[in-house]
Amino acid sequence: MKNDDLFRLDGKTALVTGGAKGIGAAIARMFANRGARVFILDRDREAGEQTAAAIASTNRQAAFCFCDQADPESVETAIEQIVGEADKLDILVNNAAIAHIGTAETTSAEDMDRLLRVNVGGVHNMLRAVLPHMKKRGGVILNLASIASGLGLPERFAYSSTKGAIATMTLSVARDYLPYGIRCNSLSPARVHTPFVDGYLAENYPGREEEMYKKLSATQPIGRMGRPEEIAAFALYLCSDEAAFLTGCDYPIDGGFKNLNT
Ligand SMILES: NC(=O)c1ccc[n+]([C@@H]2O[C@H](COP(=O)([O-])OP(=O)(O)OC[C@H]3O[C@@H](n4cnc5c(N)ncnc54)[C@H](O)[C@@H]3O)[C@@H](O)[C@H]2O)c1
């Protein structure tokens, strides 16, 4: 087998939630470059259409589909539309999520509910809509968890709660859908430089963005943040046939954050 034949997704239909920006956009680009027909599902219509158009302009297959994953009806409508266009669903990347800063005391009930609805309920909505189709022929599901799923980050009470749920939902789905030829894994990145990080710095440290960017970069022992393309490369492997032996696992991709921060 030639190296070029590895990690190909030709003939596969891939759905990427939150694919308008950041890590999701990098995954959408990577999968389309490897031959997949990619559907970007996002609630940011403008950015989603731009990302899909940029991919399509390079002779790859990508389309945008509006979807607010927190709303079951919106998810149903999006999946019906996609199933009408593509006869099968092979890959689902549950990437969309929102963040929140706060301790158990400073997190309001409303914020907790919002995080749970988008980050946990949203993934559940996607699974309920996609699994009946994927069950027919098998497939791959990849969930974006976080280092916050497995260790205590300061002031990330709501966010960590939702990402812990993603890691265990991954196990449950992997177990229940093994008989249908569906694999399910999760990726747990440390800090990755995306619009989310820039927005967080601008909001919380106005005028000190550069200083704080360096500080956040240094918390990865490797000395920098991850790049969305690095997460996308791992996602490609996990969703490719080369990873056919992998299911029910969470994979850190974290510049040494988990094991080398002593
Ligand atoms: N960036 C990091 O440092 C980092 C680290 C660990 C894990 N992650 C995880 O990786 C994933 C992507 O993170 P990112 O930094 O690229 O985020 P981002 O904020 O840059 O992009 C998230 C995308 O999700 C979309 N989205 C948000 N809510 C949605 C909803 N209800 N319905 C549909 N789309 C919605 C947004 O419009 C956006 O396009 C998330 O699950 C995040 O928790 C990120």
Automatic annotation (TrEMBL):
GO MF annotation list: oxidoreductase activity
InterPro entries cross-referenced by the UniProt entry: KR_dom, NAD(P)-bd_dom_sf, Sc_DH/Rdtase_CS, SDR_DHRS6-like, SDR_fam
Span of the signal peptide: none
CDD domains referenced in this protein's UniProt entry, alphabetically: SDR_c (cd05233)
Residue stretches making up the Ketoreductase domain: 12-177
Key word Oxidoreductase present: yes
Keywords noted in UniProt: Oxidoreductase
Protein family per UniProt: Belongs to the short-chain dehydrogenases/reductases (SDR) family.
Name of the protein in its database record: Oxidoreductase, short chain dehydrogenase/reductase family protein
Organism: Robiginitalea biformata (strain ATCC BAA-864 / DSM 15991 / KCTC 12146 / HTCC2501)
Organismal lineage: Bacteria, Pseudomonadati, Bacteroidota, Flavobacteriia, Flavobacteriales
